[in-house]
Write a structure and sequence with these properties.
Length: 791
């Protein structure tokens, strides 16, 4: 029989010494006890070892461990903790928890009597007293045990706690703050680590093991199982029979089966070895880490829950789409990828997928932040600069023919995607069809240094200067992260205005700070080109995966030796960037822009615009739209070509005001060179144009390539789709490559193969008329008959 924790012996008066003893203790330790926090303060100060990333809708996207010194889960309300665990804990630690006033004087008396006679007894520390020690380090037990002052202070603090807190609050706080084993603190961390489930799902066997760990957190498994067996017996003893006896039938009551301690030993041993609570869990690990790093750099304290800009449905869809498509590419040596979705207006990150997760051997590498070669995705910025500087228009004719550009390292000879060069094409066709030789010729006009400055202004700071990259800058030789590349395309979507990427929701009414980076008129023309399915048909066909049912502009790219594959583009509201490759840098097999990254890009864009329209942007001031026509194609050497067909079909074209003209045609000069002409004015003549065939009568001579030519295979083009054109004066000659027959006529095409080669021109009798030596550098085809792929 008790009275609020004070033992009452029947037939005897209550002894008065306890009142003044407690009063003396209270006076001695009043100051520390008065400083005990409230339950609400303790709950508010609780910090898990994990940070939870929330979507903009409030849905949990990622859980990430941020405190490596301890393992704490989330605070769990008492109602969400298994009833079996609550019962096991009270039976194991404090049987009279709901009866005493913080101190169990009956247990304390028994412990004191046992110590007097050197008997081993259960300690008298109650759950409330243990909680007082957890809340205040002054009462915490040290290696040599507690001192007398600590014991007295803990006793007073426990009584203060019992008066200020409810019993359910004491039990709830204790279960969330008590150390269980090793670094595990709190019931959430314990249940998820050892049992792989939430605290509300613990059964009586798991609850018994958890309660046994409270008393001896680091005991060996056998001792933990022994104590758990005793706790489980006490729990079974308190439970009512499974079926009460029936007076009518006279059958005896059914009791619970006895506790199998041997089985519990095996279970406890296995549980104590389990580590099911992963350090990170969710669908946005890379973004969570990046966001927390940004918070840390800004000097902010990382909160328990972080609200992000991510859209939960979009994030999950992007993850699933990337993994599904990479599984479809199995066998082509590609295992990694990344997806980034930005809001055009605010710069908010709506989806961030840094890797393919379980499909990757380097899943921790963030493909959104890793620098990679962007390939042809830099071409829109190059043509935008050339148009803004009035060097070219969208209808200007550029020469897609063999180009031999002298550099410090030898001749730079870019190649195209298709099997042969396409001759004179418009800028619209050159950009939309991703032709490489015209892009290099355009960079010769703009200069690498000027283009380097333009890329930096668009948000792509490069570590080296323009001269370092040379003319390969036109084909994407520098390394750029997907984050910077996508935001640069977002600059195109915003009419040439650049603003930083936003990691958190901006306050209502606050607009991002935009800075001009590109000419808005040139940007509009480039966007119009990249949205033109007819213009891209020369390379990608009319049924390309890049063609969407709503307005979009997109560019693909492939880097050196097929190491990186890209698709980046925008709609009226969103910018989507996709990278596919290998984090190790290994080359992919038979994967290009339309087979690698483009299907993922198209799927994500389709998801974004499933119920949302996307319309073409309005033209900015300073543009004019005019009808243009193109002259006939010039005859090719050897009589190829049809002079009756125009170079391109007539159409309406966009121009910077003052640069429009009605006709674009090729004049063949007396010296064999081709020039562009118009009815009113001449377009800028592309530098790097090689002379045509020599005049008849000069004898048989190889006119292209030049002796000593070093050919660099274009990484944007699958090796099996590249062709080098050999041309000679006259006709009827035979060609030999390294002593083997190659072809006949004034022009032949050869698939480049790495190595040093001897090209010979002979007559029908086999006499050598001319000879050149060339070298091919780069990766050759990996199969005898590789499949053709689209760029």
């Amino acid at each position: 029989m008790t009275d609020r924790g004070r033992p009452v012996v029947p037939g005897r008066a209550r002894r008065p010494y306890k009142g003044w003893a407690v009063a003396a203790l209270s006076a001695f330790l009043a100051a520390p006890a008065a400083a005990i926090a409230t339950f609400e303060e303790v709950r508010a100060d609780f910090r898990p070892s994990d940070t939870v990333l929330l979507s903009r809708e409030g849905e949990v996207l990622q859980r990430l461990r941020t405190d490596t010194t301890v393992r704490r889960g989330q605070w769990v309300a008492l109602a969400d903790i298994s009833p079996a665990l609550r019962t096991a804990l009270v039976l194991s630690e404090d049987k009279r928890f709901f009866e005493h006033s913080g101190v169990d004087w009956q247990a304390a008396s028994a412990a004191a009597w046992g110590n007097l006679w050197n008997q081993r007894t259960r300690g008298a520390s109650t759950i409330t007293m243990q909680l007082a020690g957890l809340l205040d380090g002054d009462w915490r037990q040290g290696p040599g045990g507690r001192s007398v002052a600590q014991k007295l202070g803990q006793t007073v603090a426990a009584q203060v706690l019992d008066r200020r807190w409810r019993k359910d609050q004491i039990l709830e706080a204790y279960l969330n703050l008590v150390p269980f084993r090793s670094e595990l603190v709190g019931i959430d961390a314990l249940s998820r680590t050892l049992f792989g489930k939430a605290a509300h799902g613990l059964d009586e066997r798991e609850a018994a093991v958890a309660a046994a760990l409270v008393r001896a957190p680091n005991a060996r498994p056998g001792l933990v199982a022994q104590r758990a067996c005793g706790v489980l017996r006490d729990m079974r003893a308190q439970q009512p029979p499974a079926r009460p006896p029936s007076l009518a039938s006279g059958r005896p009551a059914q009791h619970l089966p006895p506790v199998d301690c041997d089985a519990l030993d095996l279970f406890a041993t296995a549980a104590l070895q389990r580590r099911a609570f992963d350090a990170s869990e969710g669908v946005a690990p890379h973004f969570a880490r990046h966001l927390l790093r940004q918070r840390f750099k800004e000097g902010g304290v990382v909160p328990e829950r972080v609200q992000s800009t991510l859209r939960a449905p979009l994030q999950r869809f992007a993850v699933q789409t990337l993994q599904q498509h990479l599984r479809e590419l199995r066998g082509r040596n590609v295992e990694d990828g990344a997806v980034l979705v930005l809001d055009n207006a605010t710069g908010a990150v709506l989806a961030w997928v840094g890797s393919s997760g379980p499909l990757s051997q380097a899943g921790e590498v963030d493909g959104v932040l890793a620098p990679r070669q962007p390939g042809s995705t830099l071409k829109p910025f190059l043509y935008a600069q050339a148009i803004a500087e009035r060097r070219l228009t969208a209808a200007s004719l550029v020469d897609d023919s063999p180009a031999h550009i002298a550099t410090a390292g030898g001749l730079y000879i870019p190649q195209n995607y298709d099997r042969q060069f396409k001759g004179w094409v418009s800028v619209r066709t050159a950009l939309a069809a991703s032709l490489n030789v015209p892009a290099v010729r355009t960079l010769v006009m703009v200069t690498p240094d000027a283009f380097h400055r333009q890329l930096s202004a668009a948000g792509m700071p490069l570590r080296e200067n323009g001269d370092y990259f040379g003319y390969s800058l036109a084909l994407g030789s520098p390394e750029v992260p997907l984050l910077h590349l996508s935001n640069a395309f977002r600059t195109l979507a915003n009419g040439g205005r650049l603003s930083p990427v936003a990691w958190a929701q901006a306050p209502p009414g606050k607009a991002p700070a935009f800075a001009p980076a590109l000419d808005p008129r040139a940007v509009f023309i480039v966007g119009d080109i990249l949205s033109d399915g007819n213009a891209r048909a020369r390379t990608f066909g009319t049924d390309s995966v890049l063609a969407t049912r709503f307005w979009t502009a997109v560019k693909t790219g492939t880097s050196k030796d097929m190491r990186d594959n890209w698709a980046v583009g925008w709609s009226a509201r969103y910018t989507v960037g996709v990278w596919v490759g290998n984090a190790s840098g290994a080359a992919m097999h038979d994967v290009s822009g339309t087979s690698g990254a483009a299907p993922i890009w198209a799927a994500v864009m389709g998801f974004l615009h499933a119920r949302e329209p996307s319309r073409a942007p309005k033209a900015p001031p300073g543009l004019a739209r005019a009808a243009v026509q193109f002259g006939p194609a010039a005859p090719q050497p050897g009589g190829a070509g049809d002079a009756r067909q125009p170079l391109e079909a007539a159409r309406q074209e966009w121009f910077l005001e003052g640069t429009q003209q009605p006709l674009f045609a090729i004049d063949s000069g007396a010296n064999g060179q081709d020039e562009t002409s118009a009815s009113a004015k001449r377009t800028p003549h592309p530098p790097g144009r090689e002379a045509g065939a020599a005049a008849p009568g000069l004898g048989a001579r190889i006119t292209a390539p030049a002796p000593g030519t070093i050919i660099a295979l274009d990484p944007d083009i699958p090796p099996a789709r590249q062709r080098l054109q050999f041309t000679a004066t006259g006709s009827g000659w035979l060609w030999r490559m390294d002593g083997r027959p190659l072809g006949r006529g004034a022009r032949v095409a050869w698939m480049p193969w790495p190595g040093r080669h001897v090209v010979q021109l002979t007559d029908v009798q086999g006499q050598v008329l001319d000879e050149v030596r060339i070298e091919v550098r780069g990766a050759g085809a990996v199969a005898a008959a590789p499949r053709a792929t689209a760029h």
